[in-house]
Structure formats: structure tokens, C-alpha cells
Amino acid sequence: MDYQQILENIYLKIQPYAQVGKQADYIPALANVDPDQFGMCINTVQGEVFMQGNATTRFSIQSISKVFLLAMCLSFEGEELWRRVGKEPSGTAFNSLVQLEVEKGIPRNPFINAGAIVLADVLLKHLKHPKEDFLRFVRNLCGNDSISYNEEVARSEREKSYLNAAIANLLKYHHNIEGEIEEVLHFYFLQCSIEMSCHDLSNAFLAFAHYSPFEYGEIKLTSSQVKRMNAIMQTCGFYDEAGEFSYLVGLPGKSGVGGGIAAIYPQRYSVAVWSPRLNQKGNSVMGIKALELLTTETEDSIF
Ligand code: GLN
């Protein structure tokens, strides 16, 4: 497969969408990002790497970090984890709290904010040095020791965290947060603020494309757990646009409001794409289009 040629074709074909949507601005620091950027990177399981556009520019990964969070929590807790969070698509926005009231503080899945806030609480219990340990895991996954948090973005989000604070309070009320709300939210915002490029993300997600035992320092997953993580990405990775993403793209993946999307073709490749302009659901307009073109041009998706 000539992935480099495919990436070039995709780049040309997405140009009509270059001005559609706008970058997230509810996190003030993200509103300053130049919206007119696009990057994409594919890593094959054979070890080849293909890049296009701003593939080495770092951006805020935001909710893509929820995949790293889930990998760590599954490694520590195994199936026990599912007592505190579900694995059903939410059908609601990433920051919705309506379902929490009805379902007594058990978030629908780990990839909406409520679920990830519970997972942040779980990790705080297991890690001696949460901030350092989480970063070390992400650095190990992508093989890049220069990856870091952007504490300015985390602080900017914390200052305007009315909705996430409401979610955390509702979780605490239903006894699904053990730690202090402030501490849990602080850790959650830090994770979201990690900056990576498409190249870094695609490297990191390659670990989920191999169905062989996963071992990065103390974080270990069986190949069955990796397969199940992909199942959750497929059904829950794009909030209330998960069905549409499956329909258009047909790969498990995860998006973030920084405009990044990472996706996986199990046993074949990982791919990351980034463009800051988002649609109404908080997913990158050009990112989704580019991935749709990828599985169309290659005439191949998991379906
Ligand atoms: N930090 C963001 C938030 O909590 C992450 C949301 C996202 O990327 N969808 O709102």
C-alpha cells in the first residue's frame, strides 16, 4: 500500500473543508491556537512511518489522554474497574451530566469526562507520584522523553471548570470519587494538557494495534485487554458522534477538543490526525474527513 501517496491525495481532497468549524474556546488557552493547521501520521505494524503536513507540531491532546488513562486503570484494576464505570456509548455530549443523575453516579463509559474523572480518582489511589508516573507511561508508549504537560493550558481549564466541577461533585455525592474533588480535577486537567504531535500519538497508539502482550514499565495488559480497549474506542471514542464515525471511517479511535484524533487498524496500522477546527460535537472537521478518505482510498476498514 502506497500510504505516502494516499496521504498526499487526502491532503488535496480535504482543502475545501479548511475553513469549516472553529477551535475550542471554552478552554481559553486553546482559543489562541492557529486554527489553520493540519497534520497526519501513519505508523504500520511493520515499522514504517508516513507523514503529511504539520505532523510534528505538538498540540493539546485533551480527551485522547483518556485512552492512556484507561490502559493504566485496566492494568491496575482489571475487570473490577467496571464496577465504577460502564462501557456503553453515552449518546450525549462529552461533558454531559444528565445521565449521572439517572444512573446514580456511574458514568456510561471511560471516554466521556465523567468516566475519565472517575478513572483519574482510581489512578490517584494506585500511583505514588501521579503526575510523574502518568507522564512516564505516555513517554514510554511513544518513545519520546520530551513529551510534557502544558501547565498553562491545565491552569486555564481549571479556572473555567464549572461544568467538570459540577460533574465531579455529582460523582462525589454518589460516592464514586474517593479522593478530594480539587485534587482529582487537578490531575484530570493535567492529563488533558499533555502536548504531542501526530507523529508522537501515532507512535503511542501503535501499542494498541499490536495484539501481543502490552508491557510498558509497570503497566501491563493482556492481548485480550488491548482488544477490548479497541472495542470501547469503537463504541465510545467520539461521544454522540461515535455511530457517525463508525459509519464514515470504520476504525476504533479517540478524539480530543484540541483537534486531534488517533485511530487504529488492528494488526495493521495506527494513525493520528490533527486540525483544530471542530464540528458541533467537539470533533475535528478535517480530521474526520481525512480518516474517512483514508479508509475510502485504501478501500479497507475493520468492516
Ligand atoms: N479537558 C477537556 C474537558 O474536560 C477534554 C474534553 C475533550 O477533549 N473532549 O472538557
From TrEMBL:
<feature type="binding site">
    <location>
        <position position="63"/>
    </location>
    <ligand>
        <name>substrate</name>
    </ligand>
</feature>
<keyword id="KW-0378">Hydrolase</keyword>
<comment type="subunit">
    <text>Homotetramer.</text>
</comment>
<feature type="binding site">
    <location>
        <position position="188"/>
    </location>
    <ligand>
        <name>substrate</name>
    </ligand>
</feature>
<dbReference type="InterPro" id="IPR012338">
    <property type="entry name" value="Beta-lactam/transpept-like"/>
</dbReference>
<feature type="binding site">
    <location>
        <position position="239"/>
    </location>
    <ligand>
        <name>substrate</name>
    </ligand>
</feature>
<comment type="similarity">
    <text>Belongs to the glutaminase family.</text>
</comment>
<dbReference type="GO" id="GO:0004359">
    <property type="term" value="F:glutaminase activity"/>
</dbReference>
<feature type="binding site">
    <location>
        <position position="113"/>
    </location>
    <ligand>
        <name>substrate</name>
    </ligand>
</feature>
<protein>
    <recommendedName>
        <fullName>Glutaminase</fullName>
        <ecNumber>3.5.1.2</ecNumber>
    </recommendedName>
</protein>
<feature type="binding site">
    <location>
        <position position="164"/>
    </location>
    <ligand>
        <name>substrate</name>
    </ligand>
</feature>
<dbReference type="GO" id="GO:0006537">
    <property type="term" value="P:glutamate biosynthetic process"/>
</dbReference>
<dbReference type="Pfam" id="PF04960">
    <property type="entry name" value="Glutaminase"/>
</dbReference>
<dbReference type="InterPro" id="IPR015868">
    <property type="entry name" value="Glutaminase"/>
</dbReference>
<feature type="binding site">
    <location>
        <position position="157"/>
    </location>
    <ligand>
        <name>substrate</name>
    </ligand>
</feature>
<feature type="binding site">
    <location>
        <position position="257"/>
    </location>
    <ligand>
        <name>substrate</name>
    </ligand>
</feature>
<keyword id="KW-0007">Acetylation</keyword>
<dbReference type="GO" id="GO:0006543">
    <property type="term" value="P:L-glutamine catabolic process"/>
</dbReference>
